[in-house]
Amino acid sequence: MALDRIAGEHSIAFIRSEQLFDLARSNSLFYLSYGIACCAIEGLMSAGGPRFDYDRFGIFHRGSPRQVDVMMVAGTVNKKMAPVLRRLYDQMPEPKWVIAMGACACTGGPFREYPNTVLGVDKIVPVDIFVPGCPPRPESMQFAFMELQRKIRDKTQERLDARASAR
Ligand code: SF4
Fold first, then answer.
1. Whose CA is nearest to atom 3 of ligand 1?
2. Which residues of 15-47 are buried (b: 16+ CB within 10 A; e: fewer)?
3. pTM confidence score
């Protein structure tokens, strides 16, 4: 077992429940794919395939916003679609995170001249990770998820530090 290798055989490890929950959360990220343009084909459809195989990180696609942790926005969001995106986000349970995939989701990309383009999904929902590129490679999305996992684990330490300093 991995713990035996770290701490030695028959050892006991103490861990706070928050750390345990965040560790579990970070290794079981179910994502809602909000794929609306070419980025969805590049990053999302290859995500579950055998070559990139996001499943091995505990990263799975779910079809319903009520069962996901992460919203992955892949593509150009227009102003008509913005309330729908917000509603889906609101239906996700807490804690939740958002990844903006590609130039369009981050800033409007090549369509930013058009008046109905939303110039970044952070205007609609809070974004945790921005992934540049047109389109980003699936490896970039893997890296984005790894960064998100790190961010989730760091949050535990931030909470514990804040509590310690409040004493
Ligand atoms: S960033 Fe590029 S690849 Fe992605 S949706 Fe926009 S135009 Fe398509």
1. 135
2. eeeeeeebeebbeebebbbbbbbebbebbbebb
3. 0.85
